[in-house]
Amino acid sequence: MDYVVEMLNIRKEFPGVVANDNITLQLKKGEIHALLGENGAGKSTLMNVLFGLYQPDKGEIRVNGEPVNITDPNVANDLGIGMVHQHFMLVEPFTVTQNIILGSEPTKFGKINLKKAEKEVQELSDRYGLRVDATAKISDISVGMQQRVEILKTLYRGAEVLIFDEPTAVLTPQEITELMEIMHALTAEGKSIILITHKLKEIMEISERCTVIRKGKGIDTLNVAETSVTELASLMVGRDVSFKIEKKPAEPKGTVLSIQNLSVKDKRKVDMVKGMDLEVRAGEIVGVAGVDGNGQSELVEAITGLQKSESGTVRLNNKDITNLSPRKVTESGIGHIPQDRHKYGLVLDFTVGENMVLQTYYQKPYSKYKTLNYKEIYQKAEELVDEYDIRTPSVYTKARALSGGNQQKAIIGREIDRSPDLLIAAQPTRGLDVGAIEFIHNRLIEERDKGRAILLISFELDEIMDLSDKIAVMFDGKNIAEVKPEETDENELGLLMAGSTKEKAGGQK
Ligand SMILES: Nc1ncnc2c1ncn2[C@@H]1O[C@H](COP(=O)(O)OP(=O)(O)OP(=O)(O)O)[C@@H](O)[C@H]1O
Ligand SMILES: [Mg+2]
Question: How many Å lie between the centroid of ligand 2 and the Cα of residue 46?
Answer without folding.
Answer: 9
